[in-house]
Q: What sequence folds into this?
């Protein structure tokens, strides 16, 4: 797996799904690193998505207004995902955008962890949610592209993507349980876990980058 997308993997043809291909996927340490990185994103992102209306409601808004105020957050996240994907595809380099995204998540959850205990810092907490969506949304497409563009042969690429997504999407189970209702509005378990997962994601992205560079 390379730091920059070579595009060579897309040109490979004629592979068959064999035990050799399956074994090469299971023994590919780079796939484990990117799967853990994807897991960190999915767990944090799903947890925030499930709880976002309640977090906004805790700021003092009504339930209906809290639901409405999630719309700008998703719009900002969508624009962030599209923009960063285009830039990353232009340079064929995913790591900076993944690390940058997780860094924004760390900053946003540090703000939420510090100021969400009361509703005196509504602007700061809502801004933190904006930052978190800007950070979270581009990571998934970047991770998928990093995986698919650097696995040689269509069969290994297909098996590798399935392997990465299977492990990574299991983070949704974790994300559904880290926000404990009785801990609102500060959610120390949810905010702290997401903060730690983002740090883990950064470490995996950097480890994958340096591992790829060493092989070039």
A:
């Amino acid at each position: 797996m390379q730091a920059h997308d070579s595009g060579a993997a897309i040109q490979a043809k004629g592979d068959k799904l064999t035990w050799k291909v399956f074994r090469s996927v299971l023994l590919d340490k780079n796939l484990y690193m990117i799967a853990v990185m994807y897991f960190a994103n999915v767990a944090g992102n799903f947890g925030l998505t499930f709880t976002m209306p309640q977090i906004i409601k805790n700021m003092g808004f009504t339930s209906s207004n809290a639901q409405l105020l999630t719309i700008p957050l998703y719009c900002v996240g969508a624009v962030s995902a599209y923009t960063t994907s285009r830039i990353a595809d232009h340079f064929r380099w995913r790591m900076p955008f993944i690390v940058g995204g997780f860094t924004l998540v760390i900053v946003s959850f540090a703000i939420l962890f510090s100021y969400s205990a009361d509703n005196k810092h509504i602007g700061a907490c809502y801004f933190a949610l904006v930052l978190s969506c800007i950070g979270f949304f581009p990571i998934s497409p970047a991770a998928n592209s990093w995986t698919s563009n650097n696995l040689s042969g269509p069969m290994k690429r297909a098996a590798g993507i399935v392997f990465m997504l299977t492990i990574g999407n299991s983070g949704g189970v974790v994300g559904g349980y880290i926000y404990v209702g009785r801990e609102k509005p500060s959610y120390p378990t949810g905010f702290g876990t997401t903060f730690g997962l983002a740090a883990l994601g950064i470490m995996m992205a950097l480890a994958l980058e340096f591992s790829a560079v060493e092989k070039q």
About this structure: Residues 6-14 have pLDDT under 50 and may be disordered. The chain has one domain: 28-215.
